[in-house]
Amino acid sequence: MLYISPNIAIPDTEITIHAVRAQGAGGQHVNKVSTAVHLRFDIAASSLPERCKEQLLLLKDHRISRDGVVTIKAQQSRSQERNRVDALARLRDLIHRAALPRKKRKATKPTRGAHQRRIEQKKKRGRLKTLRGTLE
Are the beta carbons of 11 and 47 closer than 8 angstroms? Predict the structure, then answer.
């Protein structure tokens, strides 16, 4: 089980993890061992609450495909187990970010001083531009 919060958990059966060969430098070792990890998680077929699914699908994240599948590749470590833990942690963070309730924006007005400073700047800029004109 992957625990996101006290009331949200994902069973291991909903997460697919494949070991693949890592990219980049590493000499002969990188060609012999599959240490990188590909994690796939289908949002629509998961047991997440509906509100959480909707928020996840609304996120603008390159790891979420149009089909609603989260794909995470972890290859930082030379150990497959550490890459697996890293991928699961990144999935947990992504879902946790979507599960948090959004704060309502409170409409505010600029202060009187800010308004006066803005108007003064505009007047000053206008005077500067009129001085640029040709003399008669």
Answer: yes
